[in-house]
Amino acid sequence: MRIVVLLKAVPVVGNEKLVDGWRVDRSAGLEANGNDEYVLEAGLKLIEQHGGELVTLTMCPTPAMEAIRKALAMGAARAVHVQDPALAGSDTLATGLVLSAALRKLEYDLVFAGADTSDGQGGIVGAAVASRLGLPYLSYAARIEPDPGAGTVRVRRISATGYDVIEAPMPAFVAGTQLLGEPRYPSLRGIMQARQKEIASWTLADVGVEPSSVGSAASQTEVDSATPPPPRGGATVVREAPEVAAERIVEFLASRRLV
Ligand SMILES: Cc1cc2nc3c(=O)[nH]c(=O)nc-3n(C[C@H](O)[C@H](O)[C@H](O)COP(=O)(O)OP(=O)(O)OC[C@H]3O[C@@H](n4cnc5c(N)ncnc54)[C@H](O)[C@@H]3O)c2cc1C
Fold it and tell me: Is the CB of 125 inside a 6 Å radius of any atom of ligand 1?
């Protein structure tokens, strides 16, 4: 089984900041996107079960070593980092273009992505990549069950009414949720082994994408403005004994027609 996990390097949660032109400030350090660690975990378990190789793929105009090294320490076999100064300012369509071009150079049965990211939160890059590559797209996965013999993958998908079970031929693209299960912590051995693992650095030329197709100039969307959310209203703290507190909470919710 060959799995590629799309792993985005995002600003450390809590440190997100915008700089000129409404760009995400990446100078204070990057970490692996939380949701991507859940699909990585699911992928690692599948490799343990079926054998094969899991590779991570990251597009980031700046170095993203911490995020990539953590994925390698968790168990990914190797990593590919598409890094090129021309990528700065790329919107979702441009990101989808580059990731799909990189995937054309890799071999896979399954491509995994997180549901969304903690910085951009678009939740669309996976679908953009799958559609460019003509891959079946299985989203909101809570369980992923490939059948290598039959060449199919079955996904338990969160739906409005519970779960759907959907099946597609491989190669396929799966966007996963946190219901896939908690990511493992890298072991000391994993951290040591990660130092020896390959991190391939690819440029736009390596993936066959013209610099003029990406970056701010080529992006079809533009951030007009961005404002921080309004401060939260004061919280109501209930300190009574549990049975009284329960009544207070129900009264509070009922007063807002929430129960
Ligand atoms: C006008 C505009 C300008 C922008 N300019 C910049 C800029 O200058 N610098 C900048 O850093 N960002 C910029 N962005 C944001 C950038 O386009 C997004 O970071 C990118 O498209 C990913 O979108 P997202 O974070 O919403 O991912 P989502 O769609 O929420 O991601 C879903 C999943 O796709 C995968 N994925 C997403 N992005 C990547 C990636 N890069 N590598 C690997 N896997 C990935 C992950 O598995 C992720 O969980 C800009 C966006 C717009 C609209």
Answer: yes
